[in-house]
Give the backbone structure.
Amino acid sequence: MHEYSIVQSLVDAVETSSRSQHAIVRNIEVRIGELSGVDPELLLTAFQVFREGTCCTRSTMTIERVPARWCCPRCVQEIPKGSVLRCAFCHQPAELASGDEIILQRIELEVV
């Protein structure tokens, strides 16, 4: 389960941010791509277990799921989901435009 190591990295980043602000963490917003290899439900479970005893003890985690999106690198034409990963217009192989990311999008803090 690499979700636990991802949560540990997220909590470390949040602790660094909240410590400098003297704040309580209320919510962490994370963007998870469909092709990131991360199970959002397991990530939430890992967060609930790992947050105990950290600055995130009373915080929640909101996950925004990002669908995979492919496009042509030459003409920037979007390739429809389920299609052959090659541009129908210029025949270039498609490139992944989004959907593999794991991003700490936002930290909601309450300054004390």
Strands lie at 23-33, 60-66, 69-71, 78-79, 95-98, 102-111. Residues 7 and 47 are 6 Å apart (CA to CA). The longest strand covers residues 23-33. The helical segments are 3-21, 40-50.
